[in-house]
């Protein structure tokens, strides 16, 4: 079984009093400690029970590709429990973490740097634990006494159930906001569970370290639970640089992923985001990555395609798209876009027919 040492030589984040060269990035000008923005410049907070929720979601998706949600129905007690089990997991000693390291031959689940880290020369100041399906097998290796894994697995299973309900509601809202039939959203429910636990230890030089580099998620939607500052988003079309998404107590953050970008034929763009780190605070985040069932093809919705609006992307299933992301990273979405010459032929053909 490969250990973390094989895939990513272990580095003790806590004993470092300066940044090693392999962790030193060019200065992050937009690090929250050096940027002070007005309060208006922030992804909106949407009350899911608001009668205007559909319009608010449409505006947020068009303007930001990200928003906060309150009244989401996920119990506060469960959010606390998931965060405390996440802390418990990352505070395990390295020799135990090595027993549950991600192994490329077996899959993506387990401890390791975020999979996209291999596209960068410099390392991320973070650790990740990816859960695909049940965490039971990995958790039993970490807590071999027969009981230690129970509170961790219970919290993750309950979170998964709560997220299935919540993302079902969100997908219906997103469909309605695009003018699509809400009932079709149910076809995209029930995909494999993917939870990404992230840990960002305190860092001696946060302005030159990167928690998680800029990326979009390969999902329909991602729900992020964060209680400390660190998430930043790029507002599409704006020239305003990185915006720090400060945690809103009790709210969950929602990101548009690449597959909703495809389904909406580019009307809703996936949000580019990253995580930065702090000098004093150890930050944790929990991402629930919502994708479609394995066999479901995602393509631009026929309702959003017409004679004047050709499909901008070809159909793709989640597994294939994840493979493209793992190979091409930020060129994955472009790799499934329909080239312009094909588009103009399609437009011409439809003009001839009509
Ligand atoms: C289903 C998945 C999405 C993800 C790759 C993965 O196979 C499991 C981990 C996910 C994650 C979480 C951190 C950011 C991200 C870009 C990464 O490196 O791993 C995402 C991947 C993704 O959305 O492409
Ligand atoms: O920790 C964060 O704020 C971002 C995490 C994230 O982008 C991810 O897990 O995909
Ligand atoms: Fe992400």
Automatic annotation (TrEMBL):
Does the UniProt entry include the keyword Metal-binding?
A: yes
Stated family: Belongs to the iron/ascorbate-dependent oxidoreductase family.
Matching entries from InterPro entries are given as: DIOX_N, IPNS-like_FE2OG_OXY, IPNS-like_sf, Iron_ascorbate_oxido_reductase, Oxoglu/Fe-dep_dioxygenase_dom
- Native species: Acorus gramineus
Q: What cofactors are annotated for this protein?
A: L-ascorbate
Keywords carried by this UniProt record:
Iron, Metal-binding, Oxidoreductase
Report which superkingdom the organism of origin falls in. Answer: Eukaryota
The family database entries (Gene3D superfamilies) matched by this protein are listed as: B-lactam Antibiotic, Isopenicillin N Synthase, Chain
Question: Which GO MF terms are attached to this record?
Answer: metal ion binding; oxidoreductase activity
Keyword Oxidoreductase in record: yes
Sequence ranges assigned to domain Fe2OG dioxygenase in this UniProt record: 191-292
Q: What is the name listed in the Swiss-Prot or TrEMBL entry for this protein?
A: Gibberellin 3-beta-dioxygenase 1
């Amino acid at each position: 079984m490969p250990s973390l040492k094989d895939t990513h030589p272990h580095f003790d984040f806590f004993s470092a009093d300066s940044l090693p060269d392999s962790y030193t990035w060019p200065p992050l000008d937009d690090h929250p400690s050096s940027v002070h923005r007005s309060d208006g410049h922030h992804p909106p907070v949407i009350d899911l029970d608001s009668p205007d929720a559909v319009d608010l979601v449409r505006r947020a998706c068009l303007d930001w590709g990200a928003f906060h949600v309150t009244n989401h129905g996920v119990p506060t007690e469960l959010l606390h429990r998931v965060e405390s089990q996440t802390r418990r997991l990352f505070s395990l000693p390295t020799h135990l973490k090595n027993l549950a390291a991600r192994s490329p031959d077996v899959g993506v689940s387990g401890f390791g740097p975020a999979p996209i880290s291999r596209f960068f020369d410099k390392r991320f100041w973070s650790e990740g634990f990816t859960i695909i399906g049940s965490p039971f097998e990995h958790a039993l290796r970490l807590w071999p006494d027969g009981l230690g894994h129970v509170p961790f697995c219970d919290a993750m299973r309950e979170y998964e159930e709560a997220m299935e309900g919540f993302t079902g509601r969100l997908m219906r809202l997103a469909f309605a906001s695009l003018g699509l039939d809400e009932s079709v959203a149910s076809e995209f429910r029930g995909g494999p569970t993917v939870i990404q636990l992230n840990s960002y230890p305190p860092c001696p030089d946060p302005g030159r370290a990167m928690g998680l580099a800029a990326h979009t998620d390969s999902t329909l939607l991602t729900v992020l639970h964060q209680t400390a500052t660190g998430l930043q988003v790029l507002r599409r079309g704006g020239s305003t640089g990185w915006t720090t998404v400060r945690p809103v107590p009790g709210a969950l953050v929602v990101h548009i992923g690449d597959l909703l970008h495809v389904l909406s034929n580019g009307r809703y763009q996936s949000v580019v985001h990253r995580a930065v780190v702090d000098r004093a605070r150890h930050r944790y985040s929990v991402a629930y990555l919502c994708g479609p069932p394995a066999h479901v093809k995602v393509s631009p919705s026929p309702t959003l395609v017409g004679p004047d609006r050709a499909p901008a992307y070809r159909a793709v299933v989640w597994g294939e798209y994840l493979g493209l992301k793992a190979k091409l990273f930020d060129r994955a979405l472009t790799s499934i876009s329909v080239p312009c010459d094909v588009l103009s032929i399609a437009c011409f053909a439809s003009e001839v027919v009509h």
